[in-house]
Design brief:
128 residues, single chain, alpha+beta, 7 strands, three-stranded mixed β-sheet
């Protein structure tokens, strides 16, 4: 949860971008049923949250599980989880969010289409 920028750097520079996940992560749409993480410089939290609300998203500061306070990324930033009522256009929304001052990176990965492998509960693997 705290390596969003590093994950994006690796994904965009990889010859082949492969995502491996279990079936609990499989969602039909990103942004409406499952929030999109947005890594934010802490001082820009309110401004970024307000801008995301103008884009139709509700935001929640991601809280840590085993400690008090927010999740802190590998780069010392925080994560806002953004959720829309209806699925946004991922490519357009990634571009719009990245223009907000204080945003470090988003959980939209639209530049390279990944190969996605989902491990199912029955032990099979499906490719999407």
């Amino acid at each position: 949860g705290g390596a969003l920028l590093l994950e994006k750097i690796v994904a965009y520079n990889a010859g082949t971008f492969v995502v491996v996940a279990d079936s609990s992560k499989e969602k039909p749409h990103i942004g409406a049923l499952f929030p999109v993480p947005v890594e934010v410089v802490p001082e820009a939290r309110i401004a970024v949250a307000n801008a995301l609300e103008k884009f139709g998203a509700r935001t929640v500061l991601r809280e840590a599980v085993r400690k008090a306070g927010p999740v802190i990324t590998d780069n010392g930033n925080i994560i806002l989880d953004a959720l829309w009522e209806a699925p946004p256009d991922a490519e357009e929304m990634e571009q719009r969010i990245n223009l907000i001052p204080g945003v470090v990176e988003t959980g939209f990965f639209t530049v390279h289409t990944p190969m996605v492998f989902i491990a199912q509960r029955d032990g099979t693997v499906t490719e999407r």
